[in-house]
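Technical appendix A lists one of the benchmark inputs used to test multi-chain prediction within the project. The record comprises three sequence entries:
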Amino acid sequence: MERTAIRRRLTWQVATVAEVRRETGTARTIVLDVPDWPGHLAGQHLDVRLTAPDGYRASRSYSIASAWTGETIELTVEEVPDGEVSPYLVEVLKAGDPLEIRGPVGGWFVWKPGQEGPVQLIGGGSGVVPLRSMLRAAAGSGTPMRLLYSVRRPESVIYVQDLKQLAASDDVDVRLVYTREAPAGEPRVGRIDAELIEQYAFAPEDGATTYVCGPTPFVETVADLLVAAGHDPARVRTERFG
Amino acid sequence: MSEVNYLDGNAAAGALSEVFAVDLTTATGQCNGCGQVAVFAEARLYVDAPGMVARCNGCESVLLRVVRTPDDTYLDLRGLTYLRFPNA
Amino acid sequence: MGIVSPGFTGRRGGGTDLPPGQYLTRDFPVLSAGPTPHILTDHWEFTVTTETGEKYKWDWAALMALPSEEITKDIHCVTRWSKLQTTWKGVSLDTLLADVETGADFAMAHSYGGYTTNVPLEDLLDGQSWIAYEYDGEPLDPEHGGPARLLVPHLYFWKSAKWVRGLVLSDTEDLGFWETAGYHEYGDPWKEQRYAGD
């Protein structure tokens, strides 16, 4: 496994789109062939850069959705209304196209195999992407993992099949939280609050490392709730998607 | 809370990786303004600007700035009293 | 240059009569290097400090009492977007500085929140700049610099300091927030003076 602390300076490299897969009405997974990919840790991200024929450029960061298998890597992109880069990635990019990327980057919001203790994952919307990478990387390791995944409505859930599969394991618990519209039979509609955290998350004394990811306001609210509930701030890692 | 128009230090990792050989997101830094010591990943990052600005999540003073021009990269680290990295 | 991304054009429109390297935008991008200050007009103050240390102050009522102008100008951001025929309402710096005694050549604009930017004094005069408090017929939104911002449209828009709170006049040219981080000290869009040394 590569070292995350010291390494050479990174530069842009060209990947090729191997495959694209619809996840929801607004999200798509992009499978990339990257010739010199050094491998990555669950939770890391990469930067994508698009160049128009006249040289105009735009770049954005995306979390790597897959655990490193030695082959391709995957990104899952949610289309932002009126966005500049995401509509291209979700609607235009196709198999065979080149895509410039730089990475992997990020040594903080990562889960390493062999890391001690249970893992609490809390994601809002597309914040679930790096968390899914962690679930995949930890699969079969016996690490107790709980996922609290907040979405607006049932159609917004990414990785439906994946999550069902992962939840079948004794070590993994998945709990979906619907903030606007819930499926039939689901009693609760509303944002993550103190009560939900108390009910479904690991308790502070369980010594879990907690990863919170999603839009900035979501992350700030959840992180505050965790600290207020007695969780050690040093064990709460966050990543904000803006 | 009032509007939140920032990301965090994680989002600077890519841009900073072109300047540093070391991953800054796991580095701990001390803010020159208020003395708070925190992981750089938790810094407030403003990227919708003519450059990248990282601010202390305690007092909002500027920790560092990065500007990429066609020829050079300007890096201003005055807002950090120190940065501490784990050895490999 | 690296690859070209097939089918990518970015969120832009074409345009003639734009400074070099600019493109036309339909929206009004918000660029910010920090949190948006929220200043109530009750507390708002604008101070001009001359090179001798003399201070001239206006509160919101005093600003509103000054003759204002309707301004229509093109604006150009160094990040390459341009917006044509933007409409503002504000007080000309000629009006504001009419009774200020100074021999200074340079000015540093200071904003609530700590932002600074430098402009030669002569570029603030002769109908070239305003303290603007309305945009597009409405009170200026905080995310666009309200309650009042400096408006200097003939220079790149980073010079039009949002949340402006004062000008410090001086005989020497000091450099502001972006000017000390690689941006051009003057910033003429028509000469494409984006970065130091351009």
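Chain C touches chain A at residues 1-12, 23, 27, 80 (CB under 8 Å). The helical segments of chain C are 60-65, 93-96. Comparable benchmark entries are summarised in Table A2.
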